[in-house]
Design brief:
Layout lengths: L1 H19 L3 H10 L1 H7 L3 E12 L5 E14 L2 E9 L2 E2 L2 H19 L3 H28 E11 L2 E10 L16 E8 L5 E8 L3 E3 L4 E3 L4 E9 L3 E15 L3 E16 L14
Antiparallel strand pairs: 1-2, 1-13, 2-3, 3-4, 5-6, 6-7, 7-8, 8-11, 9-10, 10-12, 11-12, 12-13
């Protein structure tokens, strides 16, 4: 009889522990569902995007490095990137004037769009977002997820979830065809169910377009995100260790790193600001 009681208690404790630990797939689905909302809110922000490209030799030593910084904003829903720095140095006065003129010309053009033109542009953007949403929805079906640990990132406890390709996955979209050749790992905020970090590795060659590019086995990606204004999760750092071939001719071996910074809220739908006001 005593053994029976112990068995009942053991089963009850096991059930409680399983109930207290969310299913890995459910966690990932909840986090991915918030991505579209974050993309929408990001349109109300101006931010800096600094991209550094490094070319490496066969020993992974840097042979060449270039960087550009852009100020990114949305003007009447359209994204605009204004060049602000090259290789860590501010633009020359002549270059700054040229960039300001380009921004003013673009803002003026957007402001003069007819209602029909705005509707068409909005529809095109929605079509692109829908394709992205369709792709994201396929991710939970493409992998087997498992919780492999917990970590604290910026003071926030996070689930660490491994994503391994699921045998027999059949993609419904062109983009999703690459998923069986990827293995990844998610760091997801336990409280807000937001993706805080994502890493992925190419397991086999991925072709992008018929002759556009090929990513070789071993190529790695990582994205780090952060919370701003207590309302929005945004990219902070994106890195790609790349081994690829463009147009089946040019071989690229190097790394690309993009740093996102200086997020500040701004809505161009209410007021088009002259460039002199935002320098």
């Amino acid at each position: 009889m005593c053994n029976m009681y112990l068995l009942v208690i053991f089963c009850a404790v096991s059930i409680c522990l399983r109930a207290a630990t969310p299913d890995a797939r459910s966690i990932v689905e909840a986090a991915l569902a918030k991505d579209d909302r974050n993309s929408q809110l990001r349109r109300d922000y101006i931010y800096l995007q600094t991209e550094t490209e490094r070319e490496l030799d066969s020993n992974n030593k840097v042979t060449n490095s270039t960087s550009k910084q852009h100020e990114v904003r949305y003007i009447y829903g359209a994204q605009y990137k204004k060049l602000t720095q090259k290789n860590g140095a501010p633009l020359l006065e002549k270059e700054q004037l040229s960039e300001n003129q380009k921004l003013d010309k673009f803002a003026s053009k957007q402001a003069k769009l007819s209602e029909a033109e705005r509707t068409r542009i909005f529809k095109d953007q929605e079509d692109k977002r829908q394709k992205n949403r369709d792709f994201v929805k396929e991710v939970p079906n493409a992998f087997n997820f498992s919780i492999v640990g917990e970590e604290t990132i910026d003071g926030k406890p996070a689930w660490v979830i491994q994503a391994d390709p699921k045998l027999g996955f059949k993609p419904n979209s062109f983009q999703a065809r690459m998923l069986p050749n990827l293995r990844g790992k998610f760091w997801i905020d336990k409280q807000g169910m937001q993706i805080m970090r994502l890493e992925a590795e190419v397991l086999d060659t991925i072709s992008i377009g018929l002759f556009l590019a090929r990513l070789s086995k071993g190529t790695r990606f990582s994205v780090e995100l952060g919370l701003i204004n207590n309302e929005l999760w945004v990219p902070m750092k994106l890195r790609m260790d790349l081994d690829a071939r463009l147009a089946l001719l040019k071989h690229l071996h190097g790394s690309n790193e993009i740093i996102f910074s200086g997020y500040r809220k701004f809505s161009t739908d209410s007021k088009i600001v002259a460039t002199s006001e935002v320098q």
